[in-house]
Design brief:
Blueprint lengths: L13 E5 L3 H12 L3 E5 L5 H9 L2 E4 L13 E4 L4 H13 L4 E3 L12 E5 L2 E5 L6 H14 L4 H18 L3 H12 L2 H7 L3 H13 L10 E6 L10 H9 L2 E4 L5 H4 L7 E4 L2 E2 L2 E2 L3 H13 L3 E6 L9 H10 L4 E4 L4 H9 L11 E6 L11 H4 L4 E6 L5 H10 L7 E6 L7 E6 L6 H5 L5 E5 L6 H4 L7
The structure holds S-adenosyl-L-homocysteine.
């Protein structure tokens, strides 16, 4: 081990920054977050430091560094581009046993600064021993995605109850077991779901060994998996995917996304094909209730966003009626995912001031839509589940006043490596499914914004 990782308490403690540029400003910001009493010495300072001086965060000594500036200081950071100066500050500090950091010069440092994930009071610091700050930053980004933002609140809650738990479980082994179950269980989830009071009640209940109804049943996470590209899954979705006991998933959930699910979770396919339901909606609702009542953490994973043509509302209505705890995690819906990856802004000041999402799903062979309202100028229409209604969509939109030359984009398997984008007009669109052997899932975007695709497409394109 080349360095000893420590966390320094520097609140109200004199720290010195040498240099007045942008890098120095970054260090000032960091020291200020830890409450240091900061003095900065530099003949000139950048705007950010100037503002910090005016706010009283920093005391500015407006001249070059002098040896006496180190008097009484417990920590010094040097961020100047004068190598000789950096070196002499470093040597002097080392002689006086004052920890010194010289930005970008590990040789001159007696301590180095890590990349930080801050969920105060929880902090994670990553260091590569100065070998590669970029690698440290990449690692940090990965860790950021795995540590829920609410961990700070969770740690504060634990801190609040620490003594009570200690009194209740004098045996340290017992206590560790207790905290492990709290930190990975319902209390933590309640907190992440923004239900702090319930989390407190549940924690107090667990301490008193009282049934609070927040512990024994499982719960359901209704999670949007986005349109296909696994990079479009949210941090929260990923975390819940890693903790679920059972995953009930749809046909639209892509394979690479399913691979993100915890390895030993049970997978149940509840896919639906048009007109040919594998599991009826009622059976899915019942399945979720039954699994949760068995005490399982159930991940209901849906393509796109669960509340956009996803029947997510119906599923949680049943859960709510049965008093089963649930949370809903939004996903990127097919309209925004496919439009972005096809290079089509759904709204644009010059072409469309509104955008409307509708389903083109045929019910008894007809599409029951308010065509008057759809066929408006300066409006983008996105049809979900419209593949089999294309002739009707084309006919009705033209009949209700849209020009037959209105551009249309059809995006098949959007955001995945198999994405195909076809640009047509309302008039030419009906031949396309046959001509190109279109298959589901395909989304249809109608409106003048589609013109922009030619200029703005980027995904899968050699540039
Ligand atoms: N809840 C989902 C929509 C479910 S309806 C969401 O928010 O995206 C299913 C329809 O969504 C499909 O018929 C298709 O029109 C569209 N769709 C979903 N994923 C798609 C994708 N990757 N590419 C193109 N269309 C998609």
């Amino acid at each position: 081990m080349d360095y000893l990782p420590v966390f320094l308490k520097i609140e109200d403690t004199p720290c010195l920054v040498v240099g007045g540029g942008k890098v120095a400003a970054r260090k000032v910001r960091l020291l200020a977050r830890a409450g240091a009493n900061i003095t900065l010495v530099s003949p000139a300072v950048c705007d950010e430091i100037d503002a910090a001086v005016k706010q009283g965060t920093v005391t500015h000594i407006k001249r070059r560094f002098q040896d006496k500036d180190l008097d009484g200081v417990v920590l010094v950071i040097t961020a100047t581009d004068d190598e000789a100066l950096n070196r002499s500050v470093s040597e002097l500090a080392k002689q006086q046993r004052i920890p010194v950091n010289v930005v970008d010069s590990p040789d001159l440092c007696s301590f180095i600064m890590p990349s930080i994930i801050d969920r105060s009071p929880v902090q994670v610091a990553v260091s590569t021993g100065g070998a590669s700050p970029v690698l440290a930053r990449l690692l940090r980004a990965r860790l950021e995605s795995f540590i829920p933002a609410a961990y700070g609140r969770l740690a504060k809650l634990v801190d609040e109850y620490r003594q009570r738990v200690k009194d209740r479980f004098p045996d340290s082994e017992h206590r560790r077991y207790f905290w492990e179950s709290i930190l990975q269980g319902r209390v933590a989830e309640l907190l992440f779901a923004g239900q702090d009071e319930k989390a407190r009640t549940a924690l107090q209940g667990a301490i008193d060994d009282v049934d609070t109804h927040y512990g024994e049943t499982g719960e359901v996470y209704l999670v949007g998996a986005g349109p296909g590209d696994p990079d479009l899954v949210t941090f929260r979705a990923l975390r819940l995917m890693q903790q679920a006991d059972v995953v009930v998933y749809d046909r639209l959930v892509s394979k690479p996304i399913l691979e993100l699910v915890r390895r030993d979770a049970e997978l149940i396919y509840a896919g639906k094909q048009r007109d040919q339901h594998t599991l009826s909606q009622e059976s899915i609702n019942e399945l979720l209730v039954r699994l949760a009542k068995e005490g399982k953490r159930v991940l209901r994973l849906k393509g796109g966003d669960p509340f956009i043509f996803g029947r997510g509302g119906e599923e949680i209505e049943t859960l709510a009626a049965e008093q089963i705890p649930f949370q809903v995690v939004p996903g990127i819906t097919a309209a925004s995912g496919c439009a972005s990856y096809a290079g089509i802004p759904l709204t644009h000041r010059d072409y469309a001031q509104s955008c409307i999402f509708v389903t083109g799903h045929l019910k008894d062979g007809s599409v029951d839509l308010d065509w008057e309202r759809l066929a408006k100028p300066a409006q983008t229409i996105v049809f979900y589940m419209g593949l089999h209604s294309i002739p009707v969509l084309s006919r009705e939109l033209i009949a209700h006043g849209l020009s037959k030359d209105t551009p249309v984009a059809l995006v098949q398997q959007g955001t995945t490596r198999d994405q195909r984008v076809f640009i047509e007009t309302l008039e030419t669109m009906p031949d396309l499914p046959e001509r190109e052997q279109l298959k589901a899932p395909t989304i249809i975007i109608v409106g003048e914004v589609v013109q922009l695709q030619e200029k703005l497409s980027w995904f899968g394109k050699e540039q």
